[in-house]
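Running this now, will post back.
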Amino acid sequence: MAKEQTGIDLTKYPIPRVRHHVSPQVYLPAAQHHIIPPWYPPSISDSDWKSFFREGAAQVIDIGCGRGGFLLKHAIDNPDINILGLEVRDVLVSWVNSVIAGESIPNARSVWYTVANGLRWVPKGSIRYAFYLFPDPWPKTRHHKRRLFSTEFLDEVDHILEPGGRLYLATDRPDVDEYQRKVIKKHGLFKIHEATEHEDWPFPFTTDQQQFCDRKSIPYVKYYLTR
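Update: finished.
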């Protein structure tokens, strides 16, 4: 996460060493576990926004917010919009929240949670837009069941988005892009819009992976879904 993007001196917040991959079990719903292990993200039953933000409720959700570069910049650039990040790696959640607290950013929060357990705790039709950017590809066919993106996932997105709301997607993996488009077509409720102009993707800031792709000249696609 670059200082140039966030304007935050991150040397004040040494980032812990983090394994890119976590146990694949966190990508499975709690109902599929006989015993919930201690490293499994806690369930959420209701949206206690007062514990997340100084004022108001979440209006934007960043699914898989990682190190929070995109989340933090979104919050800084849009001080009137509350953004909630969801992440399966507890160590990253703690680190992002330490930056939020240290910099007194009132409209951002990261939460340790796996969306495999759904989003029904978010009030129906309350989210302006959501992000699902550069997800773990799980490239092997036998591991595709660990991919969050599914018709069930799109049902959850449909539940939280307000009328006219958007789900923004990005990936540098052609196989993931192809997979997602097949799921979208199978689901049938969402329309794909290719992000070819600024107004299609009105965010000048980028994710860590997007910055990596730009440095290495790795192509990626960006698009969004609407009902």
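The first strand starts at residue 60 and ends at 63. More later if anyone needs it.
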